[in-house]
Amino acid sequence: MISKPATRLDSDATPADVRNACRTGQHTTHTAGLAPGYAQANLVVVPKDLAYDFLVFCHRNPKPCPLLDVTDMGNPEPVQTAPGADLRSDLPRYRVFRHGELVEETTDISDYWDDSMAGFLLGCSFTFEQAMQQAGIPVRHLDAGTVVPMYRTNIACTPAGPFTGEMVVSMRMIPAEHVVRAVEVTSRYPAVHGSPVHIGDPEIIGIKDLNDYAWGDAPVSEPGDVPVFWACGVTPQSIAMQIKPDLMITHAPGCMFVTDLPIHQLSAR
Amino acid sequence: MISKPATRLDSDATPADVRNACRTGQHTTHTAGLAPGYAQANLVVVPKDLAYDFLVFCHRNPKPCPLLDVTDMGNPEPVQTAPGADLRSDLPRYRVFRHGELVEETTDISDYWDDSMAGFLLGCSFTFEQAMQQAGIPVRHLDAGTVVPMYRTNIACTPAGPFTGEMVVSMRMIPAEHVVRAVEVTSRYPAVHGSPVHIGDPEIIGIKDLNDYAWGDAPVSEPGDVPVFWACGVTPQSIAMQIKPDLMITHAPGCMFVTDLPIHQLSAR
């Protein structure tokens, strides 16, 4: 339910405006295009007994899990990326999983949060797509107005505690003459998945058919395009659904946390 | 006590040779110059109730605490930097602190390690000094055969749980015409402290007198040199001594963990 027109947040809304609209229930849908120029993030919330292992998993798998911020145990404030914000209410919509099953979609997780919860914000590919466009590289699914296709692969993540499984990737068809530049541009943004994990033949990473995607929309391509694959922030959710933790909370698809970090500050040294 | 001549490990010793000599008690002193070309690391071991907070502290303070590897809870094997190695025995010498006080210096910490301990390996400036020398930048203390001077500063680290305090820095006098190049070269190695935290006037970061250093040896300089300051891996030890954890174990000064990571693999993307 959206109690005010979505256009209220168009154009000039700051990250704080977006978060406030989420907190007050005025914005409960996608964040794509909101507060342009600021990094958006995937959210993962786990209880204390999994927090160390998940943090180690992020350290060992920085491409699928580029950690932008992590909370002190029990504190819902992301102090580094949006001081004063509240991860329990400042996203449009959340998904609550118990034992690997989706049990609720909600706009506020205060009832689930206590001193034993920790929140993790992972960089999101929205950010490097803007950088690619600014570099003159066509981003086909944005031009077509669709969601990028995502796939399960045979690329094993480095395990940590109970977290073990295969990487999820997103795929963008890139004109052959722009592929090297696409590597260069995204390499500058390790905090939002960074450089690709694979270029070319999908079968090498265990994808038999590009039309058999697991999330998102169908691929968009033109003659002369090459498939390029980046590690995807859906990876930890995909793995968690396999290991079935007692409780895990994530953002709802497309309903990201909008940080105060200007995208240009994310570029690597 | 050194049961075999130290020269046994000169020249051709591999990282595994060094670790094996530590494990068998044949090498119990400094590691400077051993297994050249491979990254060496600071060790921090803390019990479970501090492990999450320390890992968050490393994430929030990547310059003083560049995390090269972290163990699964209770597992002494650094799986990413030296598979098969054992952090309980493979360093020459350890220091055991209880409530902020040094209680033992030992060559093996197996008696302290149990399922509730976690080990952290932090990048060490030995690595970027090699890169500076290869770039033709004089490294004065290496030429003089002394230890780099280290200082407490007024630069606040970003707190995490109980971990809070000021950054420790190392200082190198760099010829003015090489300062920009020194920033460029070390920027390529964020995993071993990366670019400097300050250039020039020491007072700005709370250092009144360069001859009043807290660790290491006196500064070595020549006319036209500029003081350049890098975040130092002594920071977590300095902070832990202030917050007085029940138990914390580190390497003994200069007695680092020798990893299997070629230095060239540490350069930033």
Based on helices, strands and strand pairing, what is the structural class of chain A? alpha+beta
The structural domain count of chain A equals 2
Order of helices and strands of chain A: HEHEEEEHHEEHEEHEE
How many separate helices of chain A?
6
* Largest β-sheet summary of chain A: 7 strands, antiparallel
What CATH first level of the largest domain in chain A would be assigned? Alpha Beta
* Assembly annotation: homodimer
The tally of strands of chain A reads 11
Structure commentary:
With 269 residues, chain A is α+β, with helices and mostly antiparallel strands. Chain A has 2 domains: 40-125 and 243-261, PSTPO5379-like (3-Layer(aba) Sandwich); 126-236, PSTPO5379-like domain (PSTPO5379-like fold, 2-Layer Sandwich). Helices cover 20% and strands 25% of the residues of chain A. Chain A is built from 6 helices and 11 strands. In chain A, the strands form 2 sheets. In chain A, strands 1, 2, 3, 4, 5, 10 and 11 form a 7-stranded antiparallel beta sheet that branches. In chain A, strands 6-7-9-8 form a 4-stranded antiparallel beta sheet. Chain A binds chain B through residues 48, 51-53, 55-56, 59-60, 67, 70, 72-73, 79-80, 118, 158, 160-161, 187, 190, 194-195, 268-269, and chain B through 48, 51-53, 55-56, 59-60, 67, 70, 72-73, 79-80, 118, 158, 160-161, 187, 190, 194-195, 268-269.
